[in-house]
Design goal:
Blueprint (H helix, E strand, L loop, with lengths): L8 H10 L13 H10 L9 H11 L13 H11 L3 H10 L8 H26 L6 E10 L6 H9 L6 E12 L2 E11 L5 H11 L4 E11 L1
Antiparallel strand pairs: 1-3, 1-4, 2-3
Helix pairs in contact: 1-3, 2-4
Length: 226
C-alpha cells in the first residue's frame, strides 16, 4: 500500500481534514509515520488553505535533524491514511475514464474539417470570380520576320498573301522591308495576338503552306506581353 499523491489540492485537503484533531499521523508523538507523509508532501502546504496540514508540516520540520532516529514504521502511515483517503480515489478513476474520451477528435476528423473549410473557401472564391466576369484577354505584340526565296520575289505579293491569312484573335499591324544582303530584303511585320486563341506555330505553318510561292521561312524576332 502506498501513500496518496499530495501534489493535488484534493489530497492536501484530505490530509488537512485528517490532521484537524491530531498533532501527529500516528499517536501522540512524532514517528516514522510522520516522516513518511512529510517526505511525500515534500513542501509546506499553503497555510491559508490547509491550516492544519501546514501546522503539522512546520512542527515535523522542527524534528528534521531527528527524523532518522524517530520510532515507528513508515509503512504504517499508508495504512492509517487509507480509510480517510478511500473516497479520494474515485475522482482518479473518473480521470482514468476520461482518458478513453477523445476530447479533440481523431486526426481524420481534423483533416475532414480542414478539407471542408478549404472547399468552402474555394467555392466562395470561384463564386466571386464568376460574379466579376472574365478579365481582359492576355495579348502579345509580335514582330515576325518573313524571308523571301530570292531578290526576284515580289514583296508586295508576299505581303498581301501573308495579310490574307485570318485567325480569330489575330490583328496585323505595320510592316517594313529590312535589307539582309545580296539585294535581298525580308519583310518585318508587327501583329497582335490573343494568347489563348492564336498559336504562333500554327500561324507560321499556314504562311508556309498558303504563301509558299513567295515565302522561304518565317521567324519570331520579338514578342512582348501587352
Amino acid at each position: 500500500m502506498s501513500l496518496p499523491d499530495f501534489s493535488s489540492d484534493a489530497t492536501l485537503a484530505k490530509l488537512d481534514g485528517y490532521l484537524a484533531d491530531k498533532s501527529y499521523i500516528d499517536g501522540h508523538a512524532p514517528s516514522q509515520a510522520d516522516v513518511a507523509v512529510y517526505e511525500a508532501v515534500a513542501k509546506a502546504p499553503d497555510a491559508d488553505k490547509y491550516a492544519h496540514a501546514a501546522r503539522w508540516y512546520e512542527h515535523i520540520t522542527s524534528y528534521e535533524a531527528e527524523h532518522k532516529d524517530l520510532t515507528g514504521d513508515k509503512a504504517k502511515a499508508a495504512t492509517l491514511l487509507a480509510p480517510h483517503f478511500a473516497d479520494a480515489k474515485a475522482p482518479a478513476a473518473a480521470e482514468d475514464d476520461d482518458d478513453d474520451v477523445d476530447l479533440f477528435g481523431s486526426d481524420d476528423e481534423v483533416d475532414e474539417e480542414a478539407e471542408r473549410i478549404k472547399a468552402e473557401r474555394v467555392a466562395e472564391y470561384n463564386k466571386k470570380k464568376a460574379a466579376k466576369g472574365p478579365g481582359p484577354a492576355a495579348k502579345s505584340l509580335v514582330t515576325l520576320d518573313v524571308k523571301p526565296w530570292d531578290d526576284e520575289t515580289d514583296m508586295k505579293e508576299l505581303e498581301a498573301g501573308v495579310r490574307a491569312i485570318e485567325m480569330d484573335g489575330l490583328v496585323w499591324g505595320s510592316s517594313k522591308l529590312v535589307a539582309i544582303g545580296y539585294g535581298v530584303s525580308k519583310l518585318q511585320m508587327s501583329l497582335v495576338v490573343e494568347d489563348a486563341k492564336v498559336s504562333l506555330d500554327e500561324l507560321q505553318e499556314r504562311i508556309a503552306d498558303e504563301v509558299e510561292d513567295y515565302v522561304q521561312s518565317t521567324d519570331v524576332a520579338a514578342m512582348a506581353k501587352i
